[in-house]
Design brief:
globular, single chain, 3 helices, 32 strands, 19-stranded parallel sheet, about 575 residues, alpha/beta, four-stranded parallel sheet
Length: about 575
């Protein structure tokens, strides 16, 4: 009889335990409060353990107006039944793992003003029925796998202020009806496969502050109408197939801070009217077919942080006033037709952080004035026909991290003073005529991770050979004469030399220094300039629940249930033992 009672109590305990655990594992959307109140108007979830799919129980909350589930690893497809929550005005499922297509039924949510499915794995086409969302102001579908064309009906979304469809696989032409979106401020179409000419009606986006059309296959001319957008702060047309010249109308952008036309087929000379853009922070004209000289008007660009002119056919002279631009900290003039002495006046640009003059015909020594560049971190003089020796004074630029002077005719020795460049991570003097010993002072360069001395008759001192070999073998990339230190040579280096030519005629732009802008734009820099560009207009919306929010609710329930079960177990064991 006692055994039967004990068994009955144990079965009851196990039943309660299983029910409790089952409740704790139920979908997070079921545990709002004790009454399962479905009158909530806002759900905001920031992490925690949440369902891996969108649960059907969510559809019970008919009064819901705001649903925010960012960065929560939610997968599965977007349920078409979501459209039954007719009061929804805000949906944010950004940075999850949703797949499948966008249901056309979403067009029933006519109260929707904010919609984001950014950074998921959504496929299929953008439903043309979404044009029914006539009060929509924010639409973000970037970084998915959406295909097809951009529906012409998008022109009906006349209240849009933010449209981001970047980083998808959209094709075809941009609809001319885009010109009807006169309230649009941020328009990001970059990194798709759009073709043909840029619509002239884009010039009707009079409130646009950010227009990014980069990374597509646009051809033809740049509409002059774009240069009449008085509110424009960032314009990015890089990496297209634009085969045109730049209109003199470009000087009519009164507050623009970023212009990126790199990676096209633009010809002719650089318009002098660019000098009228006194608010300009970043100018990238790299990888085109520009010829002639840098305009004298550039001396007026006193707000300029970054200037990228590499891979063109530009030549001297450079206006002297350019060397006095007070904020310039990134200058890339590599792979042009500059011929003659290396510009000593660059030493006046005391804010320079990165400088590349590689792949030119400079035929001169390294000016001593470069020692004044005390903020310089990256210096690239590869294949620039440099002669003479490495000046020891260059060690005064004590923030130098990367020095690359490969494939020149430099002779002499490695200055021992370089042993004070404690920030140095890369030293590449491949294919020169450097001789002598590797300085003992290099033993203090603990940050050095790339030491490349190929094709130079350097030697080791007998007194410090072992220590130098230890430094060499600790580098991520080491390449020197194999008979110099045969026990510690990595003959298959893992790091590609910076700015090394990608072919026999064309050098690479990436690597150590690149001023080319990214696909997002910064419309107003603050502090240290960056080539990364982000919209100045904050488009984020913070949604607070009207009565209750859920944050890591499942985590809380799991811990709470575990503790309860543990206490119950001790209680039952005590009773049975008694």
């Amino acid at each position: 009889e006692k055994l039967f009672v004990k068994g009955k109590i144990m079965l009851q305990f196990l039943s309660i335990l299983l029910l409790t655990i089952g409740f704790a594992k139920s979908e997070v959307f079921k545990i709002f409060d004790e009454d399962h109140d479905t009158s909530e108007t806002s759900i905001t979830i920031f992490g925690g353990s949440i369902p891996t799919t969108i649960p059907s129980e969510l559809l019970l909350f008919r009064a819901l107006t705001s649903l925010t589930v960012p960065s929560s690893n939610v997968n599965g497809t977007i349920p078409s039944e979501l459209a039954t929550l007719s009061r929804l005005n805000s949906i944010d499922f950004g940075s999850n793992q949703l797949s499948g297509s966008i249901p056309s039924e979403m067009s029933r949510l006519t109260a929707l003003t904010y919609l984001s499915f950014a950074s998921n794995a959504i496929t299929g086409m953008i439903p043309s029925q979404m044009a029914r969302l006539t009060v929509l102001r924010f639409l973000d579908l970037d970084t998915n796998n959406i295909t097809g064309t951009l529906p012409t009906q998008v022109g009906r979304l006349t209240r849009l202020t933010h449209l981001d469809i970047s980083k998808n696989q959209l094709t075809g032409r941009l609809p001319s009806d885009m010109g009807r979106l006169v309230l649009l401020r941020n328009a990001l179409f970059n990194d798709n496969q759009f073709i043909r000419n840029l619509p002239t009606l884009l010039g009707k986006l009079r409130n646009a502050i950010l227009l990014d059309l980069s990374g597509n296959q646009f051809t033809g001319t740049i509409p002059t109408e774009l240069f009449t957008l008085k509110a424009l702060i960032g314009l990015n047309l890089k990496n297209n197939l634009l085969n045109t010249t730049i209109s003199t109308w470009i000087g009519r952008l009164p507050i623009v801070s970023t212009l990126d036309f790199g990676g096209n087929l633009i010809t002719g000379s650089i318009p002098s009217q660019i000098g009228n853009l006194t608010t300009l922070n970043f100018l990238s004209l790299n990888d085109n077919l520009f010829n002639g000289t840098i305009p004298q008007s550039f001396v007026r660009l006193t707000s300029l942080f970054g200037l990228s002119l590499q891979n063109n056919a530009l030549s001297f002279p450079i206006p002297l006033g350019v060397y006095s631009l007070p904020l310039l900290n990134r200058l890339n003039l590599s792979n042009n037709s500059f011929s003659g002495p290396l510009m000593s006046e660059i030493g006046l640009l005391t804010n320079l952080f990165a400088l590349s003059l590689a792949y030119n015909n400079l035929s001169s020594t390294i000016p001593l004035q470069y020692a004044a560049l005390t903020r310089l971190a990256q210096l690239d003089l590869n294949s620039a026909k440099i002669v003479g020796t490495i000046p020891s004074e260059l060690a005064l630029a004590d923030r130098l991290r990367e020095l690359s002077i490969t494939s020149n005719s430099i002779s002499g020795t490695i200055p021992s003073q370089f042993g004070t460049l404690y920030s140095l991570t890369l030293l590449d003097i491949t294919n020169n005529k450097i001789s002598g010993i590797i300085p003992t002072e290099f033993l203090g360069l603990y940050s050095l991770s790339n030491l490349i001395l190929d094709s130079n008759p350097v030697t080791l001192s007998e007194t410090n050979a072992t220590q130098i070999c230890a430094i060499i073998s600790s580098c991520q990339k080491t390449s020197i004469n194999t008979n110099l230190c045969p026990t510690c040579i990595d003959v298959t280096p893992s790091v590609t030399p910076t700015n090394s030519p990608t072919s026999s005629n064309t050098p690479s732009n990436s690597a150590t220094y690149s001023s080319t802008t990214s696909n997002t734009m910064t419309t107003s820099p603050s502090g240290t300039p960056s080539n990364s560009l982000t919209p100045s207009l904050s488009s984020s919306i913070t949604m607070s629940p009207s009565r209750a929010s859920i944050s890591s609710a499942f985590d809380y329930m799991t811990v709470s249930t575990f503790i309860q079960c543990l206490l119950g177990s001790f209680l039952i064991i005590s009773i049975l033992g008694y």
